[in-house]
Amino acid sequence: MSSIKQFQVAFDCAEPERLARFWCEVLGYVIPPPPGQFADWDDFNRSVPLEDQGSWFACVDPSGVGPRLFFHRVPEGKVVKNRLHLDVRVGTGLVGEERLAALEAECARVVPLGAVRLELLYDGTDSCIVMQDIEGNEFCID
């Protein structure tokens, strides 16, 4: 039996490029080159029907280790808590106040990018900060 070696995480959203660029800043990801012979993404978008222009965007881990993130436009807005979310892992191996300080520093970095802090979950040892991205999708700083 063969195992899957790669996967991407897909997001339904209103503004694919804007959300992709937000996650690039949060994760240190980059925008991949446009498909085929196109000089840039604007050239690519002009080549597709008007209703499809800007309908999707992606970002990738420049090291090739993390999954590709794919953002595609959908007509409906987010209604309830998402059932899948990303954990931005900045406190791995840390405990207590040291962990909390690392999480708070990352929170302070992403809030100016448009993220919204929702809640600190802290039991004296383990902690995470529940956040929302610029379209209201929950994620955790962990």
Note down, in words, how this protein is organized:
This protein is α/β, with parallel strands linked by helices and 142 residues long. It folds into 2 domains: 8-73, no CATH class; 87-141, no CATH class. 23% of the residues lie in helices and 25% in strands. The strands form 2 sheets. It has a 4-stranded mixed sheet with strand order 4-7-6-5. A 3-stranded mixed sheet has the order 1-3-2, with helices on one face. The protein is globular.
Q: pLDDT under 50 segments (min length 5)?
A: none
Decide which structural class fits the backbone.
Answer: alpha/beta
Cα-atom radius of gyration: 17 Å
Order of helices and strands: EHHEEEHEEE
Strand sequence of the main sheet, in spatial order?
4-7-6-5
Distance from first to last alpha carbon:
33 Å
What does the largest sheet look like?
4 strands, mixed
Give the total of beta strands: 7
Q: State mean pLDDT (0 to 100 scale).
A: 92
User: What is the percentage of strand-forming residues?
Assistant: 15-25%
What does the overall shape look like? Answer: globular
Helix content: 10-25%
- Structurally, how many domains make up the residues? 2
The total of helices stands at 3
